[in-house]
Each structure stands twice: as structure tokens, then as C-alpha cells.
Amino acid sequence: MSHSTMEVTLPDGTSWYGESNDTVDRLMPLLFANVEDRDAHWREHDWSKWCCGLDASCVIETAVELERQIEHEVCLTHRCFVALGAEEDD
Question: What pTM was computed for the model?
Fold first, then answer.
């Protein structure tokens, strides 16, 4: 599989880093404050779990993936991508 680092920038200018599985064009849900933390968890994602359930504590924001200029919804509370359409994977 081909995995790569991806960076998203929040409206306040901070960057978070994640992992992209380019073979199947999917993003791993978790985001990290720096590349070193992301590297420490490389390919450790449990595909049966998303990082949050979008409960009342979640603060959702739009972040931009720099390399491809794609917008993503992210949960600031749990530092993860929002699992839009995750029910399709069940």
C-alpha cells in the first residue's frame, strides 16, 4: 500500500498532520499536532473505529488539505476528520 503524509490547515493558521492511504484514496481519521507524533502512530489505525461520534462536545471546523487544496470537515475536540458517509462502510 502507498501511504503518505498529509497536512491540513485550520482557519486560525495552525496545521495538523495525518496519514493518507493513497492506494484506496482514504484518509486515516486521526490528526496530530506534528509530524513526529503522526510518525509514532503510522499505520496503526483501527478501521473499525472512528475517533469520535460527533456528540454535543464536538467543535467542527473546515480545514484545507494543502497539497490538493481540498476542504475537509474536522473535529477540533477529538483531532480527527469527521466521518461523513461512514455509515456506508458498515
Answer: 0.70
Indicate the pairing of strand 60-65 with strand 15-21.
Answer: unpaired
Element (H, E) at 71: strand 70-75
Q: What residue ranges do the domains of the chain occupy?
A: 3-46+56-89
13: which 3 cell numbers?
493558521
5-56 residue pLDDT tens: 788 888 888 888 888 776 666 677 788 899 898 888 877 777 666 677 677 7
Whole-number Cα distances in Å, 45 to 4, 10, 18, 49, 69: 14, 23, 11, 8, 24
- Greatest Cα pair distance, the chain, in angstroms, is 36
> What is the C-alpha to C-alpha distance for residues 87 and 76, in angstroms, rounded to an integer?
21
Rounded to the nearest angstrom, the gap between the alpha carbon of residue 52 and the centroid of all alpha carbons in its chain is 11
